[in-house]
């Protein structure tokens, strides 16, 4: 999980965009798709491998950020006649368009992940597929992997099925619209149930010791003739929607472990030192964390709209370091193979338009339900997938970190020497005059050094901006 999300909502200046272009070059980010890849994608868009089952009568809906067109998931929620719930979750079937061993497949192996920059994205697949023929756009029939997951009255999973089907989304919603309809009571039952099921699944998550981080986005917001950084706190609907994806990832992991072949998303328990450091950050930001209270309970008590809580949630993502993928074949399921944040076995399978591994996980699950062996092209690729995904994640992480630095430097570049109010959220043990400060306005987290006395961890501090040059010098403060 990236430490911070950055999204441009207003106009940005030329130095910022120039620095972002230079970052793409520095990191070797793929540019336009090669001619043969684009041609193969356009041909596949016109003639995908369509499934035999027709489920276009199921009134699915999507929930995504405003303006999104690469729609991986669509859902329909209903009550079961005997009690409990039925979740239908359609996942875009990119394998209906990508031929194993072809030019399109080779390019996806090279790109691995869609990369998100503040001023745009670099897609995993050509947009004729990812934002067109393969995307679950409303009103359009699309090949999909259609999950049917039955839950009891407490939200516990009691049955799972997944198969290929032709689907058609009936509506496209963004999070704010979904939240408004649910809150005002104007949502039809399939949407209204998102809150009911989402809350039940969150309670089960808490019961098993899992945790979901509602990390706010940093947004570049235009204000008059200038712009600044601010936080956008996620809505409850964001979390409820994420619970449906988590449910499916856990169901997929169970299918694969039962079949004896699969790829899991794993995360080790955070080391004691990392938790201790996080406690220091909590103290620094005024977040109450009694010694007898588990980390997960503290996180659930936070308000992402509170700037201090938002900063702490961003620091919490440091406990998610070390995540990777674990492959198993021929029944040799690794032990343990749990994702520490999920507190259960889990896999990535719900974003195949944007993440390479999900295409393989989907194929493994369809084969498991059908009682068949996975396709040979899937089995052949499995051993190399963890390393390939790790390489892609390193590049995506670099994009995230460097983009944040560039944006913050661009927004502060004309304010060298100005004073700001900040909180000291971290101090280096071996260099107590060096650490990290968090500013509420603008929403910046940056390095501080240059003083002649130890920094006051957890206290308010007046700081002076000493350095900020997008693409050249990261933001740096000094005690005033």
Structure keywords:
13 helices; 5-stranded mixed beta sheet; alpha+beta; 480 residues; 5-stranded mixed β-barrel; 36% helix; single chain
Molecular structure report:
A hairpin with a 2-residue loop joins strand 9 (217-223) and strand 10 (226-232). The chain starts with a strand and ends with a strand. A five-stranded mixed β-sheet has the order 2-8-7-4-3. It is of the alpha+beta class and 480 residues long. It has helices spanning 14-26, 35-46, 103-111, 127-133, 175-184, 189-208, 236-259, 272-284, 295-300, 307-316, 356-370, 376-381, 385-412, and strands at residues 5-8, 60-64, 73-79, 85-92, 115-117, 120-122, 141-151, 157-174, 217-223, 226-232, 262-266, 324-328, 419-427, 435-439, 444-448, 460-469, 473-479.
Strand portion: 15-25%
Number of strands: 17
Low-confidence stretches: none
Largest sheet: 5 strands, mixed
| Main β-sheet, spatial strand arrangement | 2-8-7-4-3
What's the helical proportion of residues?
25-40%
**Integer-rounded radius of gyration:** 23 Å
Helix-strand category: alpha+beta
Mean pLDDT: 90
List the helices and strands and how they pair.
Layout lengths: L4 E4 L5 H13 L8 H12 L13 E5 L8 E7 L5 E8 L10 H9 L3 E3 L2 E3 L4 H7 L7 E11 L5 E18 H10 L4 H20 L8 E7 L2 E7 L3 H24 L2 E5 L5 H13 L10 H6 L6 H10 L7 E5 L27 H15 L5 H6 L3 H28 L6 E9 L7 E5 L4 E5 L11 E10 L3 E7 L1
Quick overview of this protein structure:
With 480 residues, this protein is an alpha+beta fold. It is 36% helix and 25% strand.
């Amino acid at each position: 999980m990236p430490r911070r999300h950055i999204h441009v909502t207003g106009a940005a200046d030329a130095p910022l965009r120039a620095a972002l272009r230079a970052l793409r070059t520095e990191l070797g980010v793929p540019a336009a798709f090669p001619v043969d890849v684009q041609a193969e994608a356009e041909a596949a868009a016109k003639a995908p491998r369509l499934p035999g089952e027709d489920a276009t009568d199921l009134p699915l809906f999507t929930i995504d950020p405003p303006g999104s067109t690469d729609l991986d998931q669509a859902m329909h929620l209903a009550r079961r006649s005997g009690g409990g719930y039925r979740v239908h979750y359609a996942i875009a079937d990119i394998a209906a368009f990508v031929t194993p061993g072809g030019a399109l497949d080779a390019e996806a192996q090279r790109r691995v992940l869609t990369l998100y920059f503040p001023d745009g994205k670099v897609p995993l697949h050509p947009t004729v597929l990812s934002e067109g023929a393969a995307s679950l756009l409303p009103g359009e029939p699309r090949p999909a992997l259609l999950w049917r997951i039955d839950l009891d009255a407490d939200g516990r999973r009691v049955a799972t099925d997944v198969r290929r089907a032709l689907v058609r989304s009936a509506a496209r919603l963004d999070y704010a619209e979904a939240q408004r309809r649910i809150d005002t009571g104007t949502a039809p039952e399939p949407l209204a149930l998102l809150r009911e099921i989402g809350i039940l699944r969150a309670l089960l998550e808490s019961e098993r010791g899992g945790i979901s981080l509602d990390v706010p986005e940093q947004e570049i917001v235009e204000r008059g003739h200038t712009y600044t950084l601010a936080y956008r706190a996620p809505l409850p609907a964001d979390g409820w929607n994420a619970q449906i994806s988590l449910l499916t990832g856990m169901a997929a992991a169970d299918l694969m472990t039962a079949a004896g072949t699969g790829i899991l998303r794993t995360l080790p328990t955070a080391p004691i030192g990392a938790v201790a450091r996080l406690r220091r950050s909590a103290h620094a930001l005024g977040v109450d964390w009694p010694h007898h209270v588990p980390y997960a309970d503290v996180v659930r008590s936070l308000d992402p709209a509170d700037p201090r809580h938002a900063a702490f949630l961003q620091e919490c993502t440091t406990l998610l370091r070390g995540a990777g993928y674990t492959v198993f074949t021929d029944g040799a399921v690794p032990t343990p193979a749990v994702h520490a944040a999920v507190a259960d076995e889990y896999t990535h399978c719900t974003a195949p338009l944007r993440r390479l591994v999900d295409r393989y996980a989907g194929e493994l699950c369809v084969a498991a339900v059908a009682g068949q062996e996975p396709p040979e092209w899937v089995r052949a690729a499995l051993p190399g997938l963890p390393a390939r995904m790790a390489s892609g994640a390193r590049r995506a992480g670099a994009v995230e970190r460097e983009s944040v630095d560039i944006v913050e430097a661009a927004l502060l570049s004309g304010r060298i020497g100005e004073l700001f109010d900040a909180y000291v959220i971290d101090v280096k043990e071996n260099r107590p005059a060096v650490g990290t400060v968090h500013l509420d306005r603008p929403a910046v987290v940056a390095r501080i050094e240059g003083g002649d006395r130890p920094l006051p961890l957890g206290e308010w501090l007046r700081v002076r901006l000493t350095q900020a040059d997008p693409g050249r010098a990261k933001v740096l403060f000094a005690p005033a």
